[in-house]
Structure formats: structure tokens, C-alpha cells
Amino acid sequence: MLKLLDGPQTMGRGPAFWGAAGLVLLAALAYPLFADPYDVGNFGYFFVWIFMALGLCLMWGLCGMLSFGQTFFFGLAGYGYGVIAIDLGNGPLGTMAGLAAGLVLAAAAAAVLGYFMIYGRINGVFFGIVTLSVTLALAYFLGQTAGPEWAIGKARLNGFNGMQGMDPLTFPGPDGGIVLEETLFYYVLILGLVMVYLLLRMLANSRFGNVLVAIREDAERAELLGYDVRRYQLAVFVLGSTLAGLSGVLYTSWGQFITPSSIGLPAASMPIIWVAFSGRTDLTATLVGTFLLLLGFQSLTIYSQETALVLMGALLMATVLFVPRGFVLGIGDLLARLTMRRRREPRPAAAAEV
Amino acid sequence: MLGNLFAGFYQFADVFAFLVLSAAGLAIIFGMMGVINMAHGEFVMCGVYVTAASYHAGLPLPLAQACGTAVAFLIGMVLEAVVIRPLYTRPLDSLLVTWGLSLVVTQGTLVLVGSTFPGIGTPLGGFRVGDYTFSAYRMVLFAAAIGVLGFVWFLFLRTRFGIQARAVMQNPGMAQALGVRRNRVYALSFGVGAGLAGFCGALYAPTMSLIPTMGSSFIVESFVTVVVGGSSVLLGTAPAAVALAVIRTGLNAWYGQIIGQIGLLVAVILIIRVLPDGFTGWLTRRTA
Amino acid sequence: MNRRDLLLGTAGASLAAALPRTGQAAGPPIKIGLLEDISGDLASIGLPKLHGTQMAVDEVNATGGILGRKLELIHLDPQGDNARYQEFTRRLLQRDKVDVLIGGITSASREAVRPIVGRQNAFYIYTNQYEGGVCDANMLSVGAVPEQQLSTLLPWMVERFGKRVYTVAADYNFGHLSSAWGKSIMKPLGVEFVGEEFIPLGVSQFAQTIQNIQRAKPDWLYMLDVGAAQSSFYEQKNAAGVRLPMASPVKIMLGFEHKRFPAGVMKDMYAAANWFEELDTPEAKAFVARWRAKYPDEVYINDMGYNAWVAIMLYKQLAEKAKSTKLADLRGAMADGTLGVDAPEGRIVIDPKSQHCSHRMRLISVDGENKIKIEKDFGDIQPFWLGQVGCNLLQSNPREQYTPDNLPRR
Amino acid sequence: MTTLLELQGVSRRFGGFLAVREVDLAVAAGEIHCLIGPNGAGKSTLFKLVVGRYEPSAGRIHFRGHDVTRDAPHSRVQRGMSIKMQAPSVFRALPVRQNLHIAMQHHVPPAELAREEERLLELLGLASEGARPAGELSHGQQQWLEIGMAVALKPTLLLLDEPTAGLSPEETFRTGELVQRLAAGGMTVLAVEHDMSFVKQIATRVTVLHLGQVFARGTVEEIVADPRVAEIYLGVPHAA
């Protein structure tokens, strides 16, 4: 199993890469010891979004399905968490049930929508357009639930102003449970990210992952190698969308609040920006790039104020025009080429043995 | 009675005009080059702002509108050469780059021009049929929409550029081998697409409040029309606009605007499911 | 130099100028955290709010600050994005450790901020007019609420123009709630609601609505549209030859449509306002003159910008009476219900039960030349509704938003 | 000999055009069966019907005793079919070795994968190209790689759609040898082919398709000797 951590679908291998990764992880674990608690919480907040980006990387980068619907599942799971948590009276019971309900809701919705699209042979740009349409329709729908008639149990959807009143995720424990916030939130999310990242990495390099890239490169050929392409696509769509759902639950828990504008445009395009900027074909690039981009965009907004959006747009354009494979992946390629040259191997792909 | 009949037509004409005018530019760029132009709304906004500025500078409205269209056309040509051309083999990347462009343009306009811009005022006044009064300018918009369809028809079927453009669309490699200068065709197509977006903005400038983000008002409708229409402006956009205008007018009238908006999106999903290349694919398959 | 340096720079400069008069500043500066959108869709409203706060901070610093401490303004731009409101609320409260948090435009942004403010037990001032009903001890609302804007305006409209009313509202909490308010105020007056339409945010085409209005033949229109796209309605209605009186709680003094649209478009729009730039009192004229000297390019000094200025002045009174910036002390200072400030509109007093403010309300109208006329002066109006339905922050803190159809359990 | 693949009265209609009409075809285990015919005879359509890319408008298809008429392509492949498409269709961005790996990963025990890949690369003459992206290979090499991928599935029936298109005579001959070696190892082959010298080199049986119908069938010698076939197809250049 563990040898699947390295393979043709993931950048970086060997002691140098894992050593560096371990150092980054150690630094991240030690960070709260000397940093301002606000910065720790803020970094934890950035981690919330990375699950959604990794899910998109899996669907789009590895399997070639551009889903514009990450925020659809984000929103479903976020609202699902809120409704269940509120109706079960919050606390450890309500929030844990809410977490489960949010993820199940996202997965079930992805299974239904995915079945409709994938078995209806909707692909390419149209896959993106259908997912975007569904996403916008959900945002419009939730936006007009302002009236008191729009309530599920005690939980009011509350239209554009958003739903609130749910507790943060709470683990069972003494004194009504251990509330997942601030530094604890940060550590739990690091743990979750490391697990999801490693599992996805193994998945990408497994036989399953090989099939995914085959589908991305040429779905018809993959089918004629005996692979039930649509089942693989559906599985990946459900998995990637459920990761978006996880982000949705974590976001709602973090701010105890969710609104339709977390679902509609421009929110829906953000995951695509992160993943495209980072390098969509690689999980590590997505992980690192999404974090850097979230940090960069927030810093731009804080320090350059009015010109922030101009700079973000320009950054995006420059990345696409000058580093077509993505910013982080571009740097990764550069590093790989430097080290490879030293080892006198012809090209990085030579490392594709299994 | 006459009033109600005319009112029904007027509503349809109004939605139809909005769909055709806002979608034509996007459809040309998508159909010709496979590029999804996320900055489409900003070309519309460019048309609006240039029109309004020229009008306030003293030009008569029609001339100001011509200015708005021309400026959008020229900017489109320049942008094609600078940011779109390197990306023809990567259609998804052109989506990202135009999205970045739209951020830069919207916020750049806000910083440079300010958060609001003085409006123009709708010309021509109103007229009365039966119990209702109507805006005469809305009829001009309807005529302009028909005119745009006619212009596109003429451009693609009756001019040298059109013949070359269709050749490039069918088979870029072969067209190039036959001596068609592909880059020039693409640059002109993008320019025409941008110009039509600017024309849409120029026409709607006197009817809306002007802010830098106003382009987004046109985006959803134009995308929906292009998706439902498919890749051909001639075969797709016009029938799609008719169909969607009927759906939307009906839903608006009987169930209100929110259902009209959600209904439009549901229609898109169903039509993609049934007709994968929109009306274009359906019509070409029937005639093939 | 970025905007934040600029702000601190000017604030510092005015303080230096003030020093010889007021002596040494005592203690560290009082930090004011401000969240206003200066980019994105709502920038046209956020900019005057930023200016109002800046002007107030400079004026307070020029007269010695608060409790001898100068004010330090930290402004962040959430770009109209609720998630950014959440991020920046945390940043200002936890990292910058501001003494008071001010800002937010839409109700959604306010609701994004409130849970975080509540968990940190901080003090938050919301400066917009809004649909009312927030009963939260951590929040002070400075803007006008429906009992001030609608209970004045709507009965007057019914008496003046008639009992057939058509409502055009944004399909948004503000639209739904204000429409419900309109019904509860006007039903007892025998008003017939001949039509009601909710328009999705971002819709800019209104031919169908205009026709529905013509069919319903109302005496006047109750307008609750939101945002620039929806305000295209007025131009289109005018072009279609529909000339009806209109009433709205968010037009003119807030959206300054009479400064942006051609003459005639907003003709016969009526609104009840605690502030509008054309207000003709000596205090108001002096205020406008100071503002225009500082920001000569301002298109219009709207009520939100003015309220933002008032918020700082109220905070100064609160902190000086409490001799502290702690939430409990500040609330103690307002508890007797007399604390207030003499503002350009008249005296504004905080109601301790709801933590909303009284306002001097005036009814204004727009003529065919985009000129403002004062139709009536209603005098001081109390924010009575929350107290009436049972919100009493002196006794409990439910942190809820109540509406006519979501009342507190007694 | 047992019948491996059997088509009974298979037709396929496109609008008003009958591309394939009532074709009966039986491929016996162990043979190298070539399908020939002039352009537009319906050979490619028939292939797509066999592999499941199209569904027949009428008729039935049996493979190894199962009715696969309505089965999806992947489940036919899982039953033991394998196809090499007409235009080389390899995963162009992926390394050559990974192309083979993807094809064989479910047919070879994990421990033997590396050795098996090595063996196939050797067999295909691509031993030194394992790390190159497949899209960088020459046209001939891509054809071979794709045959290799088809073979890697260890099929009972190997379908080859114009395996020699665009190859030099030398490469064509070596392809023939490869096919014969595979057949000798027990694989049944059904090939669509234009090049008669290639057909003569490998075929044990030939079926001629004309205007969507079976026109003639027999051994190579019989077909070459049939004057009717020469008339419609062999006519001028290949008759020698």
C-alpha cells in the first residue's frame, strides 16, 4: 500500500521530497507554539477550503471532468450540517450528526446528479455548464427562502441573509464536549488534510488512478481496454464532491453561518481558479498552491485594498499565459529538471516505473 | 383585447431582444473559436461606458452608440492578439484568462472612473396601445436584435470574410492550406464578437443604471442562450432565443421573475441532456 | 503608500495639530476596526461610509481624542464578500484587538459578523438603515429602522395619494421584511394591495413588471428594490410612460438616484430620511461644508455616510461617560436612556432596551428637475418596535433578529 | 473448431442509409480472419458493431457463447475481446510504459507487472522508449504500441482495424510476423485490411464485404481466384 505514495500521477518522490514534506509538516505543527493565535486560526480557516480544491483536482486534473459545482455540494453540506445541528439541539450529538448528514447529503446529491450527467453522456464544456446551472439554481432558490415558511424543523433557511444558530463542531467530552475552534481547529484540520492528501495520493497511483488518467487522456480508448468508464467517472465525481461537502461543513462550523452567496458566482469559480493556478494535474501542487493563493489573495485584499481585485486578475492572466501548467507545478517542474539533470536521467517521466 | 395581444408580443420581443443582443457576441466567439469569453460582460460594460461618455461629451446618441461599438471592436482585436491567440489549443485556459481579464477591467474601471456614472435617459418616449403604454425605444431594441441576426447572416454567408471564417471553423488546417490567413480570421471574429457585445451595451446604455459591475447583468442570459443554441450563431442563437424568450416570458407572466430565472436554468439542463450540441446539433442532424 | 498608511498618516497629522490645545495623550490609542466595501458591487455605498468614519476620527482626534487617547482607524475592504467579512472580523478582533468594530452594508454581511462578535463578546456598531429587529447586546444600531422610516412615510402616502398600493421588492430578506412591514402598517388603514412582486437580485429588465403595474392600476408604488441592476427599473418605467408616485425607504438619501439619473426619472419619489445632503439647517450646512472641504469629489453625502460619522460621535460620548471602552461599561453608560449626541439632523438618543437610536425624521420628495423638497417634519421618532414586542437587552441577550412573523416567545 | 464470434443477420441503419445489411459472419477459434472490401463497404461499421461502439438495428451478436448484442464495449472487452483502432489511439501524454501498464494492470498479477511490461516492450521493439510520452513516438511505433496494448489484455479475440495503415512495407511485414506469432500462441484474430499483400501473408480465412453485405468468403486463394471479387475490388493494382 505505502509504495503507492509515489508514482506516475504525483509529483515528488524519494527521501528529498518526503524529507521536505516532513519538515513542512513539523513546522506547521510547531507554528502555534510561537505564532499569534489569530494567525493560527486564520491558517486553519485556509485549510477549510483545501479539501474542496483537492476534490476538484481529483475530478478535473486526474479524470478530466471540469465540475463548476464544487460550491453546490459545499452549500448542500453546509446547510445540511446547520439544519441537523440546530434541530438536534447542537452540542456533540447535533454537530456530529450534522457532520455525517452534510457529507451523506453531498455524496447522495453527487451520485444522483453525476448519474444523470455521466450516464447521459454529458461531457467536456457542457459538464461544466450543467454543473454551473445547477449551482446557480440552488443559490437562487436559497436566496428566496427569506420567509418563515422556509424552515426545516427549528432551522430557518433565512434567504440571502443566511442561516445561523448552529454550534461549531463539538467532540464528545467533559463539560458538554470539546469545541473545535482556534488552535484545536487548526490541528484537527492539519490531521484531516494530511490524511486526505496521503489517501488521495495512494488512490492516484493505484490501478484506479491509472484508469482515471487513461479516461482523462482518451475515454473511448479506456473503455476499449475494458474499463467501465462511466462507473469510474461517477465514483470520482462522488468522491470529489464529497470533499467539497467536507469543506462546506467545516466552513459552516468555523463561522456558524452560511449564505447562498457561498454557493453562487463568484464563489463557484474560486475552486477552479485555485486549482488552475496551482497546477491541476497534481495533488501536491493543488495543496500548496491553494494555500498560497488563499494567503496571497487575503493579503492583497488587506494591504492593497482597492487594487486587490486588479492584482488578482492580473496574476491569474500571467499564470495562464506564462506558466501554462500552473504556478506551483511550474516551479515543481523546474526543481525536478534541475535535480534530474544532475542524475543524468533523460526526463522526469522516466520515473514512471511502478 | 388588442392591448393585451400587443402586450404579449411586446413582452416576448423585449426578452427576445435582450437574449439575442447579449448572446450574439458570445456566440460568435464560442462558435468560431471554441473560446468561452468570461469577459463578455466587460465588453458590454465597455460599450455602455464609452456610449455614455461620448453622449455626455456632446455627441448625439446614435453617434455615441457607434463609438461604443467601435471601441469594443478595436479593444477586442487587440486583446485577441495579446492574450487569446496563445491559448487556442487550450480552451479551458482561455476561460481562465478572460475571467482574470474581467476582474481587472471591472475593478480597474471602479478605481479609474469611480463607483457610479451619470446615466443618459431613454429617448423616443412612450406610446399607447389599448390600456397600456409602452416604451418606443424597446421596439428599437427589438429591431436592432433582428438587425444583428441579419448582419451576422450577411457577414457569414455573403462576404469573403464569412466564407473564410466558416472554412476555418470547419477545418482550420485545411483552410490554412488553402491560403486562408487563420490568425486574421480569428482576430476579426473576436473583434466582431467584442463589437457585438459593445453594441449590446451601447443599446442598453440609456435604459440602465451604470456601475462598473453592470456587465454581470448580461452574463447568465447570454450564456444560457449560447449553450442552448450550440456553436452556430445562425442555426443556434436565433431559435434558442425564441424558445427561451417564450419560456421566460410565460414563466415571468404567470409565476414571477424568480421562477422565470430558475426555469431558464432548468431548461438549459434539460436541453443539454436531450440535445448535446444544442439547437445547432439538432438542426444539422435533421438536415444531414 | 497604501490606503491604510494614508489613513493613519492623516489621523496622526490632525492629532499633531491638536496637541498644543489638548496636552499630552494619555495611554495607547483606541483602535477602531472598520469594515466597508470599497470594491465590488457596493463600492458606491461603501465609499461615503468610509469617508464619514475618516472625517469623524479626524475631528475627534483634533479635539483631543477620547479619554485623552487618540483614535486609530484600521479599515479593511471585504469586497462585498460575506466570507471576507468573517475573516476580517476575526482579524480585527483577535489580531488587531480593536476596541470597537464598525461597518457592514448588507444585512447578510451584518449577520456574518454577529456570530463572531458574539463569541468574542465584542462591541459592534452597525451604521445602516435596515429592516430592523436585531436584539443583540453586542450590537448598537445607528441607522433608521422601519418604525422610523415606514410608520411615518406610508400612512402619509396613503392619505395623500390613495389606497391602491403596488409593491415591487427585491427577493431578499430586506424586501420581504419591508413588504411585511408595509402590510402591517397599511392594512389597518384600509389599503388594498393590488400587486406584489419579488424581483431576484441582479435582474435589470422590467418590461413585465411595468406591464403588471399598468394592469393593476395602483395609486402609488411601494419600492423596495436593491442594487444598481434593479434600479434600472426607474429609467424603464419612465420610458414606458408610467408616471406614478413612489415611496421607498432606500432611495434618494441612500442611493442618491437624483444625482445619478437624468432629470424626470425619479420624479415623485417620496422617502422618509433622518439625513439627506440638502437638509437646510445651519448644523447640516456646516457638516456638508466640512465634508466637501475634505472630499470635494463626493457625488453625494448619503445617510449611510452621515450615520458612519454619527457612530464615532456616539462612541465618543459612550466611552467618555463610561470612562472605559469595555462592553459592560459602555452598556452601563447607555442604560438610563439619556445618552445621545447633538447631530446635524437633531439630537440622537440611544434606546437601551433595543440598542437602537432615535432619529429626527423628515419626509422628502424629488421633483422633475431632480430637486429635493421637504414635505413634512415628523420630529423625533423612537425605535419602539423591539421594546414593544419584548426585546429588553437590560434583562437578557437573545442575539436574535425578530420580525413581524418571528416574534420572541414571551 | 469452435465458433468464437458469430454475427447473425446484423444490420445497421443511419437515417435512410443501410450501412450494414444482414451480415452473417462466424470467426472460428484459432483462425486469422481478414475482412476486406472496397471503401464504403461497411467494414469499419461492422467492426464498431462487434466491439459495441454501435448497436445493431437488427440481428444478434454472440461471443464465446454469450449474446453480447446489447453489451457495452467494456463488458465485451472483459469477456475477452480486444481492439486496435484504425487511427493510432494511444494515451499520448502518458509514457509508453504506462500505456502498457494501464492496459495490463488487471490481467497480470502485480508482482509480475514489471517483468511483463519489459517483455512486451522488447517484443514491440520499444525497449528503449519506455519513458517517452507515447505521443512522441513515430506513427509506426504508435501503431505497434497500440497493438501491444490490445495484446496486453490477453484477449481471446484480437480485433485489428487496419493495423498497417501508414506503415512502410518493411514495417508491414514485421507486423504480419507479429500477428502470426500471436495467433500461434492461441489468439484468434479478426482484421480489417486494405493491403492485399498483408492479407496474403497472414489470413487463414477472408470475408469480402461489398455495399454492406457479405459478397464472398473463403481462403485467400479462393478469394484471389474469384473473378467477381477482382471485379469489385481487386481489379487493378493488387491483383498480382
From TrEMBL, chain B:
Pfam families the UniProt entry points to: BPD_transp_2 (PF02653)
Transmembrane annotation, as ranges: 12-32, 63-84, 96-117, 137-157, 185-204, 224-247, 254-275
Compartments it resides in: Cell membrane
CDD domains hit by this protein: TM_PBP1_LivH_like
Keywords, comma-separated and alphabetical: Amino-acid transport, Cell membrane, Membrane, Transmembrane, Transmembrane helix, Transport
Family matches, as InterPro entries: ABC_transp_permease (IPR001851), BCAA_transport_permease (IPR052157)
Keyword Transport: yes
Membrane topology: Multi-pass membrane protein
Keyword Lipid metabolism attached: no
PANTHER family reported in the protein's UniProt record: ABC TRANSPORTER PERMEASE PROTEIN, BRANCHED-CHAIN AMINO ACID TRANSPORT SYSTEM PERMEASE PROTEIN LIVH
Family: Belongs to the binding-protein-dependent transport system permease family. LivHM subfamily.
Protein name, UniProt field: Branched-chain amino acid ABC transporter permease
Organism listed in the record: Belnapia arida
Lineage: Bacteria, Pseudomonadati, Pseudomonadota, Alphaproteobacteria, Acetobacterales
